[in-house]
Specification:
This protein has 235 residues and is mostly helical. It has 6 helices and no strands.
Amino acid sequence: MARSRVSSANPSTSDSLSNFDATTRRLLACGIAAGPLYLVVGFAQAFTRKGFDPAHNDLSVLANGALGWIQIANLIITGVLTLLCAAGLRRVLRGGTGQLWGPLLIGLFALGLIGAGVFVADPMNGFPLGTPAGHPTNPTLHGFLHFVTGGIGFSGFIVGALVISQRFFADGERFLGWFSVVTGVLFLFAFVGIATGSTRALIVLGFTAAVVLAWIWLAVVSVRFRKPERVSPDT
C-alpha cells in the first residue's frame, strides 16, 4: 500500500493528497462517533422509559411506543455514520488482505442497522407497558423484517471483523488482529444466543455487552486507520 509521502516540490500533488486525507479522516471519524451516539441514546432510554428492563429487553425494542421514534432515528443515523465509515475504510484498505470484503462487510452491517430502524421490532416481554410477557404470539411482517435485516447486518459485522483481522495480522499488528478475532467470535456467540429468542438476563445482557464491544472495535479500527501513514494517495 502506497503511503502519503509528498514532495514539497509538487504543491498541486500535495494539495490533492491533503484534501484526500481530510476527506478520508472525516469518513473514518464517523466510525468513531457512531458507537458513542448509539450507546448514549440507547442507554439513556433504557434506564428512563417505563416498562423497559435492560436485563430482559434488547435495545431494539425501544423503537416501540410514543417515544419509539428516538430509537428509530438512533438506528438509522448510526447506520448512516457506519456506512460513511465503510467508505473511509475502502479508501485506506487499498492493496493486500481485506481491501474489498472488509469495507463491503462493514457496509452490510451499516445497512442492517438502517433496515432495523426502518422495520421496527415487535413489542415484547412487557415493553411498552401493557405488553404481555414473552415474545409476541402473532409476529408482524415488520417485526420479521427487523430480525432478518438485523441478522444480515450482524453477520456482515462478524465476518467483516474477521476479514479485517487478517489485514492487521498481515501488517504485523497482532494485538489489533487478535482484538478483531475476539470481537467477531464473541459477537457471533452473543448473536446466536439472542437469536434463540431467550429473554434470560444472561443472554440479553451478554448480547448488550457484545454490542458495546462491537462499537468499541469499530472506533478503535477507525482511529487506527486515520493515522496519516495509513492513507493511500491513489485514487
